[in-house]
């Protein structure tokens, strides 16, 4: 590990500040983080890279993607921001991780790549910000959380939901007792696409896409556009939401994708971020009639050891918290705003003894953890727990029965079929999970 990386790792652990990078741009702050963007499609370029490019104490030094057009498009944006051509490009994440002076990576690939890339990065002493859903499979999440603890680097699950104003307000009011003791929670997530979608037609692989690398650890499948993504051949920009979001080989569907946002906030408020529920029951259905096959409807109920129940469904994105003295419902990217049993609760003047939740943005939270040693809002253990809770719901639907879950041993205790569904996994060839632990 190079000296510079060691200094930033020590800073993150001990909260010590170091002036270790040459000045650039107008602000020239004393602590800067060199970032590599791994995966520069829709989310990776717009939401993630765009935000990091706007931070004075971050330098995007590399972009990596198996789609050459997207990689070149992303590099152009970086070069325009900094006024030079220093940003490196890589088609293989392993080469990007070897870049001298690199401190951290942003993983914005398909879900089935998250764990392997993050594990490889942490083994090299790099800090990791990882898109949700954190992993495709349960065993990947457990391995990732263990590696984050072992390596001592900063790991953050990349969800901005905890930083949203409505969620902040809800958390502050509920955690400080303004609706009494929590009795029930309700979470909704949106529908991904129309039913029966996805064109399964097999077509030649575009010359700009390394499809073998894109598939990586997943099962080998013939190429079709709606299996992967669409790229503008003239600009290299992404075009629409990618089809892989609706294929179980690469993604669990909205049950985990947006569940990673909203159930995380629910667990944070409930004090169960590092544990989880004790049971799940309900039903759902899967997409059919086209290429896509992820779950497209479900109504589930989780129960926690503290007696709280949580209903979870595909509807619109929102979070509802009910207490024995009132309720609050916060909508996110959906109509409804911020509601409560009495709107006067939103005029509450907090007491000096109340504890306010962190109000940093998601990307600032990650960078501050590296440079200042502040705890991240969603660490690897919390990321694994919220993802495994979503996977438990998926396993409940697949098993067709109520599942009892032991959050200490992380096992389904009442159904062999449910345990098998919960622990299903697949890694092909050189991408076996054990090769990266």
TrEMBL record:
<dbReference type="InterPro" id="IPR050463">
    <property type="entry name" value="Gfo/Idh/MocA_oxidrdct_glycsds"/>
</dbReference>
<dbReference type="InterPro" id="IPR006311">
    <property type="entry name" value="TAT_signal"/>
</dbReference>
<protein>
    <submittedName>
        <fullName>Glucose--fructose oxidoreductase</fullName>
    </submittedName>
</protein>
<feature type="domain" description="Gfo/Idh/MocA-like oxidoreductase N-terminal">
    <location>
        <begin position="34"/>
        <end position="156"/>
    </location>
</feature>
<dbReference type="InterPro" id="IPR043906">
    <property type="entry name" value="Gfo/Idh/MocA_OxRdtase_bact_C"/>
</dbReference>
<feature type="signal peptide">
    <location>
        <begin position="1"/>
        <end position="25"/>
    </location>
</feature>
<keyword id="KW-0732">Signal</keyword>
<dbReference type="Pfam" id="PF01408">
    <property type="entry name" value="GFO_IDH_MocA"/>
</dbReference>
<dbReference type="GO" id="GO:0000166">
    <property type="term" value="F:nucleotide binding"/>
</dbReference>
<dbReference type="InterPro" id="IPR036291">
    <property type="entry name" value="NAD(P)-bd_dom_sf"/>
</dbReference>
<feature type="domain" description="Gfo/Idh/MocA-like oxidoreductase bacterial type C-terminal">
    <location>
        <begin position="199"/>
        <end position="432"/>
    </location>
</feature>
<dbReference type="InterPro" id="IPR000683">
    <property type="entry name" value="Gfo/Idh/MocA-like_OxRdtase_N"/>
</dbReference>
<dbReference type="Pfam" id="PF19051">
    <property type="entry name" value="GFO_IDH_MocA_C2"/>
</dbReference>
């Amino acid at each position: 590990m190079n000296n510079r990386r060691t200094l930033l790792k020590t800073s993150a652990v001990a909260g010590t500040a170091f002036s270790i990078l040459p000045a650039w741009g107008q602000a020239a702050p004393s602590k800067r983080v060199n970032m590599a963007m791994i995966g520069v499609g829709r989310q990776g370029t717009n939401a993630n890279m765009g935000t990091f490019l706007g931070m004075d104490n971050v330098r995007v030094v590399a972009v990596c993607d198996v789609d050459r057009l997207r990689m070149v498009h992303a590099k152009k944006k970086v070069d325009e921001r900094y006024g030079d051509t220093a940003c490196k490009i890589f088609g293989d994440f392993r080469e990007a991780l070897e870049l001298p002076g690199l401190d951290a990576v942003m993983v914005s690939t398909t879900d089935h790549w998250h764990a392997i890339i993050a594990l490889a990065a942490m083994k090299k002493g790099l800090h990791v910000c990882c898109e949700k859903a954190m992993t495709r499979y349960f065993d990947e999440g457990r391995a990732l959380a263990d590696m984050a603890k072992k390596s001592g680097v900063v790991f953050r699950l990349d969800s901005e939901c905890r930083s949203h104003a409505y969620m902040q307000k809800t958390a502050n009011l509920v955690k400080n007792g303004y609706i009494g003791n929590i009795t029930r929670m309700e979470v909704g997530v949106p529908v991904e696409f129309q039913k029966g979608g996805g064109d399964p037609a097999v077509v030649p692989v575009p010359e700009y896409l390394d499809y073998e690398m894109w598939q990586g650890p997943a099962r080998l499948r013939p190429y079709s556009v709606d299996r992967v993504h669409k790229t503008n051949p003239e600009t290299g920009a992404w075009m629409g939401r990618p089809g892989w979001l609706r294929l179980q080989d690469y993604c669990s569907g909205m049950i985990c994708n947006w569940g990673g946002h909203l159930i995380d906030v629910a667990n944070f408020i409930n004090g169960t971020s590092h544990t989880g529920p004790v049971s799940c029951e309900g039903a759902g259905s899967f997409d059919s009639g086209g290429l896509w096959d992820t779950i497209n409807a479900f109504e589930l109920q989780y129960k926690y050891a503290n007696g709280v129940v949580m209903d979870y469904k595909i509807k619109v994105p929102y979070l509802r918290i009910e207490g024995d003295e009132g309720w609050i419902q916060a909508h996110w990217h959906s109509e409804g705003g911020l509601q409560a049993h009495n709107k006067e609760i939103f005029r509450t003047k907090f007491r000096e003894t109340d504890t306010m939740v962190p109000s940093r943005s998601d990307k600032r939270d990650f960078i501050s953890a590296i440079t200042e040693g502040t705890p991240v809002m969603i660490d690897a253990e919390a990321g694994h727990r919220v993802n495994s809770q979503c996977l438990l719901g998926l396993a409940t639907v697949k098993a067709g029965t109520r599942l009892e879950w032991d959050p200490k041993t992380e096992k389904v205790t009442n159904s062999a079929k449910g345990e098998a569904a919960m622990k299903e996994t697949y890694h092909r060839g050189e991408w076996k999970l054990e090769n990266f632990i």
